[in-house]
Amino acid sequence: MSLLKPFSKLPGLNTANILLVESEEQFQQSLADALVEETSVTVNVRLAKSLPLPMENDESRPRIDLVVFIINLTSELSFQSAEASLKYLDPGYFLGKVCFMVTNARNASSPAERLDAVRKLASSLHCPLLFAEDQTPDGVASATERLLTILKVAAGLVPIATALYVSNLTRCTLPLDIDLPSFD
Amino acid sequence: MADGRAAAQLSEAAQSELLDMCEEQFAQLEKLQNEIILCEPDFCENPQEQSVKRLIATEAELKQWSTVEPQLLAENPKILLEAGKEEMHKLCSELEMVASCYEAKRDKLKETMELEQKWLEENKQMLAAASGHNERLQIEKEKLSEHTVLQDIKEKIQKMKVYQERLMETLGYILEKHIPLPQEDSSTNKKKKNVPHEIHENLISLNEILEILMNKALNTPHDPYVVIDDTFWPPYVEMLLRYGIAVRHHENNFKIRLETFF
Fold it and tell me: Do the beta carbons of residue A157 and residue A14 sit within 8 Å?
């Protein structure tokens, strides 16, 4: 089992590397296209269907600063795949270098229980949970902006802020009573 | 790293000073990196244990931040000026964005307030109208006593009676003038002289036919039909039926009733 480690490689100069993990590979590409548009830092986007990452290009792979799990709420497989992939991450990643992004949360065919399950998962791992709209350009742009904010901190490009510090503020917290209607 | 671009405009001395600093930092980074790799990896699957570790890490970070001494970025004032300028520009543009955002918010709130005020005004007017109406009703209620109500109704009944009287009189007058008894009719009309005389004797006037029909309709509303006998002059019956004053029974041709005008 090859664990992905946050500090196994040296960082690049003024560079941030993000890994998008999505089993369905629908939202990944448009999000990646928007992410690399960023001008103030060099953003490298790596795409994966699931973890673990293949061994062959392990050497050429840069240090991953942020791992994003994209979960489509209308598909159970998407959630299961993300859950299974979590095992291949070094615990060091969970100190602010992982985040979950949920799509299709407003879709009527996505069961509320699945959202609750994702919420539980994110809060048990102390990771932020983002909601994104993948159908419209506006939704992609705002999702990109939010990811970039987290990514810059996770890559150490923001003075005085560290990933652990920010994640303590942005992590998903479970409401005390999960049965209460959630206000998203 | 952030002031790397700014350094392009600086003197060579300052630039080399910055590069030296960067190299120094990178050397330290490499040293730390090696330390991390040499560290024993510790696995923990238990989420509770992970939480504890997270807490420890956060505490360590807190301690680090609280003990660290603030350090000047560089000694060279030119570098500091350039870095400060850049920071200021960034801050300025961010603040401008915040300002425009708040202006938009303020305008929206103003609009909402105007709408709410209009709504409040309308509601106030409505309240005034309703309370005025209420007051008027109250005054009226005080004025009205049982006696006056009785008086009122008596007056109304009287009026109705007078009206009905007048209607009856008019009806009688019209019937008398335009639809006289068939006997007189036949006496003036030569053609009708051939009609047998004995039938005429029992004939009743249209006046009476109408009276019978009306009484029947009022006294026995469940069965308002009247049997046509030989006292009813057929042309009169025909006329009543034709002008929709009377209706024939569905099954029995010899029965008629008054049309339901109400």
Answer: yes
Residues of A in contact with B43 (CB under 8 A): 91
What does the H/E/C string look like for B145-194?
CHHHHHHHHHHHHHHHHHHHHHHHHHHHHHHHHHCCCHHHHHHHCCHHHH
The reply to whether the predicted model has a pTM over 0.80 is no
Give the CA radius of gyration of chain A.
16
| ipTM of this complex prediction, to 2 decimal places | 0.73
3-class SS of residue A61: coil
Domains and CATH numbers, chain A: 15-170 (3.40.50.300)
Q: Once rounded to an integer, what is the mean pLDDT over residues B107-128?
A: 97
SS3 content of chain A, % helix, strand, coil (to 5): 35, 20, 45
pLDDT bin (cut points 50, 70, 90) of residue B146 is confident
Phi, psi for residue B64 in degrees, rounded to 5: -60, -45
pLDDT at position B132: 97
A164, B59 Cβ separation under 8 angstroms: no
| Mean pLDDT of all residues belonging to chain B | 83
The Cα–Cα gap between B55 and B60 comes to: 9
Interface of B with A (CB under 8 A): 1-2, 4, 29-30, 33, 36-37, 41-44, 47, 50-51, 53-54, 57-58, 61
Strands (E) located in chain B = 226-227, 246-248, 255-258
Both tokens of B200, joined, read 């005429």
